[in-house]
Write a structure and sequence with these properties.
Helix content is 67%, strand content 2%. By secondary structure, the protein is mainly alpha-helical. It has one domain.
């Protein structure tokens, strides 16, 4: 695969900083949601044996989110034609599927707020946690591919 779009986007320090900030923020968010990172009363980080597969997937998701969102910001700022609803293609869906609300302390909230439907949704999220995370990584891979393809098209980026 051609590395020119990555060099083009990440040649600016602002996009590198944006990608790092997004990746770090979402890594902390995913770790707190999965109850791996505890902030109160003391900072503690613990990886139980049942999270050996899901934890690396959340790291990959956070890094891909940083890269994809930085590339989309670059495309948006340098595009001749302003993008529509597909600007952040796949990013929001990947965040939603990777956060895995069924594995968090929000489970009780969903079950009590939405009753039987909340309990059913929560049990589905718990049951299909790993496939949802893999789908999130796949969606981010697709979003990266589409952003990469848009950057390779010469008619999309303004000439300098």
């Amino acid at each position: 695969m051609n590395a020119l779009p990555l060099r083009m986007v990440f040649s600016g320090k602002a996009y590198v900083a944006l990608a790092a900030a997004i990746a770090a923020s979402f890594w902390v968010l995913f770790s707190v949601f999965d109850q791996l990172l505890f902030i109160y009363p003391i900072l503690d980080f613990y990886i139980p044996s049942d999270a050996y597969i899901s934890f690396p997937l959340s790291i990959v998701t956070a890094i891909l989110l940083g890269v994809v969102l930085s590339m989309n910001v670059y495309i948006f700022k340098n595009s001749k034609v302003k993008a529509g609803a597909s600007l952040f293609s796949g990013s929001a869906l990947s965040v939603a599927s990777s956060a895995c609300a069924g594995c968090t302390s929000a489970t009780f909230f969903f079950a009590t707020t939405f009753g039987v439907a909340g309990a059913a949704a929560t049990s589905l999220l718990i049951e299909y946690q790993l496939p949802l995370r893999l789908a999130g990584v796949g969606l981010l891979g697709w979003a990266y591919y589409s952003a990469h393809r848009r950057l390779l098209q010469s008619c999309v980026i303004k000439p300098k």
